[in-house]
Design a protein that fits this description.
heterodimer, A: alpha+beta, Arc Repressor Mutant, subunit A, three-stranded antiparallel sheet, 4 helices, B: 0% strand
Chain lengths: 95, 226
């Protein structure tokens, strides 16, 4: 039986952001932008969606005089990601 | 990365694997660059100390090794000033703590060995002192090789593991059997004429050679990985 896939994670960019954050303690906005190849605007929108769902935590600080946005995965996001991978497995097993 | 409404299970898994691999490689490249810079700084410092010791016959220049961590820190920050920072990850933290442990042990041992040698030289006769003296460099090379090997295991880099083993154990054996001294003696005949030169230069040459094998070379390989 297919398990439902979390619609918030079932998107290329949001899934890429979550996958990057799952293997890091935290990552800066420019790093995520570079690794995903997304535009700053699009990335900002998707980060806001993940933040609103409580999947990630965003901290805005300063590095010297430059603003710095730090993203890290929340326990809720980690759980959602694990459930998403489990759900994916059910699709792959049937095939 | 475009928004795709018809994301398949395979593509989803591909994205996850791809991003996790990218994250691991970003850490590897970051570590590679740090090793490369650390290697070049170590070679540079060893050569400067070697030349100064050779020209002045004063071993006090060895104290410049204490400045090495600061030199590496400064040069690394300068080289990485315009790069997007690598993410803080478990791999990165483990590698950083391995090298921090190395720095603490190596510097402490270097201080202890120098104090001990100074004491032995002042209290014992020349023959006894030369037998009792501790050479800190071979132990430091062994510790360095061990750290490079551990880093290689953490980053799953076979090259790094082998460079660490060869650099660490090779350096230890080289220094223990005074291979550089033997080479000098072999090429120059009577070594007693060159004793001062050999004593001052040998540790610096060994440090430079094995810093290249253990730090610069694997660092370059990690930096250049695709």
């Amino acid at each position: 039986m297919f398990q439902p896939l979390d619609p918030l994670l079932h998107s290329e960019l949001r899934l890429a952001i979550m996958s990057l954050l799952i293997s890091s303690d935290e990552a800066e906005f420019p790093y995520i932008k570079e690794q995903t190849g997304a535009t700053a605007g699009n990335l900002s929108v998707q980060i806001d969606k993940l933040l609103a769902a409580g999947y990630i935590e965003v901290e805005k600080t300063f590095k010297g005089k430059r603003p710095c946005t730090l993203c890290r995965i929340s326990p809720q996001g980690r759980q959602a990601f694990v459930q998403y991978v489990e759900a994916l497995k059910s699709y792959l097993e049937v095939k | 990365m475009e928004e795709n409404k018809n994301l398949t299970a395979e593509r989803s898994l591909e994205i996850i694997a791809e991003q996790i691999e990218k994250s691991r490689k970003a850490v590897s490249k970051n570590v590679g660059q740090s090793l490369y810079v650390a290697g070049l700084c170590t070679i540079g410092t060893a050569l400067v100390i070697g030349i100064c010791t050779f020209l002045t016959n004063n071993n006090a220049y060895y104290l410049l090794y204490f400045a090495l961590p600061l030199i590496i820190y400064g040069v690394t920050r300068y080289v990485k000033r315009n790069q997007a920072p690598a993410p803080a990850s478990l791999f990165g933290t483990m590698v950083a703590k391995t090298w921090l442990t190395f720095a603490i042990f190596a510097l402490s041992f270097f201080v202890f060995a120098n104090l001990y040698d100074t004491l032995i030289i002042r209290t014992e006769s020349y023959d006894v002192a030369t037998r009792l003296m501790i050479s800190p460099f071979r132990t430091i090379l062994l510790l360095m090789g061990m750290c490079v090997t551990i880093t290689g295991y953490i980053l799953k880099s076979r090259w790094l593991v082998w460079c660490g083993i060869i650099g660490g154990i090779g350096g230890f054996i080289w220094e223990s059997f005074n291979v550089t001294g033997m080479l000098f003696a072999f090429s120059a005949g009577d070594i007693s004429n060159y004793c001062g030169v050999v004593n001052g230069l040998v540790p610096c040459i060994i440090i430079a050679i094995f810093a290249f094998i253990g730090l610069t070379l694997p660092g370059l390989m990690l930096k250049r990985q695709k």
